[in-house]
Amino acid sequence: MSITNIIVGITCLVSVVALRYPIVKALMLFHPVTMREQQQWYRLLTSGLIHGDFMHLAVNMLVFWSFGSVIESYYASGIVGDGGAQKFMALYFGGIIVSSLPSYFRHNRDPNYAALGASGGVAAIVFAAILFDPWQNLYLYGFIAIPQILAGAAYLYYSWYKDKQANDNVGHMAHFAGAIWGFVFTGLLNIELFVQFLQKAMLGPA
Known about the structure:
Blueprint: H1 3-20, H2 22-28, H3 32-38, H4 43-46, H5 54-76, H6 84-107, H7 119-132, E1 137-140, E2 144-147, H8 148-165, H9 172-189, H10 192-203
Antiparallel strand pairs: 1-2
Helix pairs in contact: 1-2, 1-5, 5-6, 5-7, 6-7, 6-9, 7-9, 8-9
């Protein structure tokens, strides 16, 4: 069984349990004040295993499963060196952790702030895919074809813009930070990937 499928299975199981038992959700939630006061740094990771509702869970896991299996195969091929499985898990779980850091520093004295979800890790996987194949189409709503590089640029701008507005209950900066992590982390494992990305980006779609 692939690592992607295992992560999807564990995340779905833990999320369902947390939705059923609020005490589980409370113990795993990303809550910066509690983390600072009680040194509960594990919440950086556990918050990525729980979701606000079934739709939130379904969207995150569908996107992760769609892109994760592809990126896992790239990592396993040796293109990023040995230990592809471990590096793939570092990509995903690192995305969850890194994506939460801006919010931690911004809200670690705000007792009303809390967050949850795997969006940072999912964004990391998607932007690793953009690094490998920038002009590959992704399909919005299942049928609108958009090159990944263009969708990625729009996603970063949207996340930055909405974070500045701060008028909804979505962690846009987490999405932005997770995306940057996925792109940079993957590229640093093999600098040639950055070179190939630039060459492909400038050549345009095949």
